[in-house]
Write a structure and sequence with these properties.
There is one protein chain. The chain is mainly α. Helices cover about 75% and strands about 0% of the residues. It is globular.
Length: about 425
């Protein structure tokens, strides 16, 4: 196994308890707050822009701008800000988050909104690419003992997922308030972006409790990923293959598939997807125990392969109840690889490379996941058969086998 660098070498580390409690708690709390903000605006954004009079093309341009801007900022933060203390970077990111929310609450013209979307922090995709990500993940790795790292990442992901779910639920409040008080809905939605600003403030207050550390800006700054570039690039390519396969089965497309092939109603589909999301979120907590016993790569591969087999079978079977059964089975193990994957990336690089490694492995994943839903939609347009599930599952299974080979060739565990 690639030696795990000592956590004391990081710029963020300092006195205080380690592990999934103590000094890592602010990161979990802030991740939940940011997840709430993202879940809230992911529902609110398109409706608000439509109320402002923008057509689908303009709305799509603004949403695309947020995604491109998030990807660019994530890469920049990981590659250029790794030498600054995590606390400083995260507080600066919160300031930009507050400015973004203020901009969307006060600006109503297209081009200024597009500019704010590109340079701001808004990320309505619900994905794991954001300005905060590389610094948070690097800090979490530094503040956790190696044996607790997978569990820390599981709690980190669970915090974000639960926060996003609550934010999505809360997004209906502006409409209810407007209906109850007879306010103009566009005015209420505009004011609702103040919630995003308040979340930025809440996250900043939470980050302020992180350990202080001296800046390394005046010291020697080795280029990011100088030592670990080869392994990070290889892992990034593999992770992108997995994400591209996942793009064939994003939630919106699963809704189309289940309704189109089996004639399930929206209530049934919504219930099924809610249960699968619950299973996926909480299954990550088991990932740490498996990783401690079997290793990170084996945990990733041998939980992911059965999940992908279930996905393929859900696309083949002719019975709707059986297909749902396979989707539920898949959900119990499909996300166990996520914290193990994040811990693996942190383990194979030097401490000063962690932020860069997080951004370089996550941004291509996000872009790859965005590249395949269009093809999946075209397939569903042509046939009711589950080709997107079959193709997606096959691509993800290929990733598992290639990752296992990579681990054997380079002694990754």
């Amino acid at each position: 196994m690639v030696p795990d660098p000592p956590p004391s070498a990081s710029a963020v580390s300092g006195p205080g308890p380690r592990g999934p409690t103590g000094s890592t708690r602010p990161i979990f709390m802030a991740r939940a707050i940011r997840g709430f903000a993202d879940g809230f605006v992911s529902i609110l954004l398109a409706l608000y822009l439509k109320q402002l009079g923008f057509d689908a093309l303009h709305i799509g341009a603004i949403v695309t701008g947020t995604l491109i801007g998030s990807a660019a900022l994530t890469l920049y933060a990981g590659l250029r800000w790794h030498h600054h203390p995590a606390r400083t970077v995260l507080l600066a990111s919160c300031a930009l988050m507050a400015i973004t929310g203020t901009g969307f609450a006060t600006v109503t013209r297209f081009w200024p909104l597009l500019a704010i979307a590109v340079v701001g922090t808004l990320n309505p995709s619900g994905g794991d690419v954001s300005l905060f990500l590389p610094t948070e993940q690097a800090a979490l790795a530094d503040l956790s003992e190696a044996g607790n790292r997978t569990r820390s990442f599981a709690l980190y992901n669970l915090s974000g997922g639960m926060g996003a779910a609550l934010g999505a639920l809360a997004s209906v409040l502006p409409k209810e308030i407007a209906s109850w008080r007879h306010f103009d809905i566009a005015t209420v939605d505009r004011a609702a972006f103040g919630v995003y600003v308040l979340c930025a403030l809440g996250a900043a207050l939470t980050y302020r409790t992180l350990p202080r550390a001296e800046s390394r800006a005046s010291k020697e700054r080795p280029p990011p990923l100088q030592q670990s570039r080869s392994i990070v690039v290889r892992l990034s390519m593999l992770f992108s293959l997995d994400a591209a396969g996942g793009g064939f089965v994003v939630q919106a497309l699963l809704v189309v598939y289940l309704a189109q092939r089996f004639n399930f109603d929206s209530t049934t589909i919504g219930t099924v997807l809610a249960v699968t999301a619950f299973f996926s979120a909480y299954s990550q907590l088991l990932s740490a125990r498996l990783a401690a016993r079997f290793g990170l790569v084996r945990t990733m591969v041998f939980t992911h392969l059965p999940a992908n087999a279930c996905l393929i079978l859900a696309g083949i079977v002719p019975n709707g109840s059986v297909a749902i059964g396979f989707l539920l089975l898949r959900a119990t193990v499909s996300a166990m690889d996520v914290p193990a994957r994040q811990a693996l990336v942190m383990a194979v690089v030097e401490p000063h490379e962690r932020a860069a490694a997080a951004s370089v492995t996550n941004v291509p994943r996000s872009l790859a996941a965005a590249a395949t839903p269009l093809l999946a939609g075209l397939l569903l347009d042509k046939t009711t058969f589950g080709w997107p599930l079959i193709i997606g599952g096959a691509m993800k299974a290929a990733y598992d086998l290639l990752l296992l080979r990579e681990s054997l060739d380079h002694n990754l565990k």
